[in-house]
Amino acid sequence: MPLHFFSKAVLAFALISAPALAAEHKIQMLNQGLDGMMTFEPAYLAVQPGDTVAFLPTGAAHNSRSVLSPENGTSWNGAMGEKVTVTLEQEGIYLYQCDPHLALGMVGVIQVGQAKNLSAAQKQAQTLSSRFAVNKDRLSQYLEKVE
Ligand SMILES: [Cu+2]
Which UniProt keywords apply (predicted)? Predict the structure, then answer.
């Protein structure tokens, strides 16, 4: 077999099998953000399956812990003041919170691909929001951005 034929075959295989490049997204954990005090920013984020999301601390007072994931979806529990990075493969809605600031409505929504579990997420969001002392409509506003 001539070498050039082999090279073309390898190249063709590489092009066909190469996965789409997974993107990396960043969410900041803020004392003061565009939506007010104690927020994740962006608090609603849409990504593609396989993308990575990093939660970046801006101080020691925040964390990110998942509250709801789609079936077989990953969950996470970031330590206080620590960066946590998650790769999200399963399609659906992910809800997460900052533990010390749940009562202030410090929560967020990530949509991965199709919002397959939207009704479960809406139900969970009602339970979460009932525990907010302020910013009670924040989470439902975030969920309204789901497409
Ligand atoms: Cu916080």
Answer: Copper, Electron transport, Metal-binding, Periplasm, Signal, Transport
